[in-house]
Amino acid sequence: MPSAEWSAAKNGLVKAMESLGYPDELGRIMAHDLGSPRAIERMTAYLYHERPAKTELIADEMLSIIEECRRWREKKEYESANAVYNEQLNRAEYDYEEDE
Q1: 58 vs 93: CA distance, rounded Å
Q2: Do the Cβ atoms of 24 and 14 come closer than 8 Å?
Q3: What's the number of domains the chain is made of?
Q4: How far apart are CA 27 and CA 43, in angstroms?
Q5: What is the pLDDT of residue 53?
Q6: Residue 57: helix, strand or coil by DSSP?
Q7: In 3-state terms, what secondary structure has residue 21?
Q8: How far is CA 21 from its chain centroid?
Q9: What is the chain's pLDDT, residue by residue, as a tens digit (100 residues)?
Q10: Alpha-carbon distance 31 to 25, whole Å?
């Protein structure tokens, strides 16, 4: 069951799409594909601010947001893996110094 945050973000996007003359189903599909309330809210802000006249512009912005979110998640995964690796290196260095 979606949270209130998800529902509010999705409903906002659907309303924005309808205000531009697009079917509400397109807004629901976009909300699903965007993948997070924050991404949905960014898309909604774009729609209200830019009021794009072409579906190509809407699709391009949606894909840009999705890619940016993917890169952010990937960066966080790398940072986490790097922190674990550095901890292991530091522990090994400390163990080496104790053995001397």
Answers
A1: 52
A2: yes
A3: 1
A4: 10
A5: 92
A6: helix
A7: coil
A8: 25
A9: 468 999 999 999 999 999 999 999 999 999 999 999 999 999 999 999 999 999 999 999 999 999 999 999 999 999 999 988 888 888 876 666 665 5
A10: 10
> Which residue type does 85 have?
Y
42 within domain boundaries: yes
Tell me if residue 35 falls in helix, strand or coil.
coil
Name the one residue in this structure whose structure tokens are 């979110």.
69
Is-contact 22 12, C-beta < 8 A?
Answer: no
- Whether residue 79 is contained in a domain is answered as no
Query: What 3-state DSSP class applies to 22?
Result: coil
Q: What single-letter amino acid sits at 41?
A: E
Residue 86 counted as domain residue: no
Domain ranges, residue 15: 4-71
Q: Which two tokens stand for residue 82?
A: 């790097």
In a domain, 95, yes or no: no
Q: In angstroms, rounded to a whole number, what is the distance separating the alpha carbons of residues 71 and 93? A: 32
At position 84, the amino acid (one-letter code) is: V
CA distance 33 to 83: 31
